């Protein structure tokens, strides 16, 4: 619950935070009379601003806060000092991201018990909120405006979908990501799965960490008769079920809630684990950050016993962690060897996303050298 005082009375509402942020301890009411400079100072101090003014003005204020939090200090602008190592650059980047998120999360929006926003010129976000959070609770809710905007953006992506050329021609080639499930916007890893040679006679495949279901769908469209796909996240399983139904592939793919492997063996076991060994700060980041390479090492150590004779394991992995100094190639090869596996081959591709070519990005040196690979593994 979030607690605050208003007109001499103690008030409270349900607190929503996808990132798991605790309810702010200090809350003040804010409206159109609040200047951006004062709002920024309060937000930096950890004071939350519960908005009571015009909704569109709240959006303008959030944009003003973004400009201030992204502004470089004058001293740093005069004498820029580059981080000593790529690893240091990564950690500084993560710290800056965390601070930015904390500051911007301080602008709060109230919602009624049916998820309606009780502010002037407020949009109707009830459908998007119910889609992400479930049925309306019947009592007031408070959430950060930034999170609400992300929720609505995810709602629009879910309606529109992401075109996946590897699934064939439109209109039957779209994946619709749900809120909290990582969208397959980096299509190069999907293309790797679409073009790697299937093991001869491959009638059964395992997809470890199904997410949106995109890789299961690609395998099914390539002719694999049955795919068993696993995930621990109920949102991911629901999202995959929705996408497979849209693609008329639900009869070919079985979804299981499991930690890594389903029971049994298959001729093909595919896994696209998070690529960076770091601690996620929000649920959506679990698709990007894998603390201590836990999922990667778990996949490698359990792969051999789940491979049918003559089977292959496909590990889809970027080498960005290597360029950032977070994991070495020698470590990866050592884990493969220790798991009783050997490398049959590797298919590489270069990333196509905008950050790979953005010289202003804090991690540009590492991103510009990044290679995404599909490692073909077999029992040693």
Automatic annotation (TrEMBL):
Gene Ontology terms for molecular function: protein-glutamine N-methyltransferase activity
Pfam families, sorted: MTS
Recorded coiled-coil stretches: none
Methyltransferase small domain mapped to chain residues: 204-316
Keyword S-adenosyl-L-methionine (UniProt): yes
Entry keyword set: Methyltransferase, S-adenosyl-L-methionine, Transferase
Alphabetized InterPro entries for the sequence: N5-glutamine_MTase, SAM-dependent_MTases_sf, Small_mtfrase_dom
GO terms under biological process: methylation
Protein name: Class I SAM-dependent methyltransferase
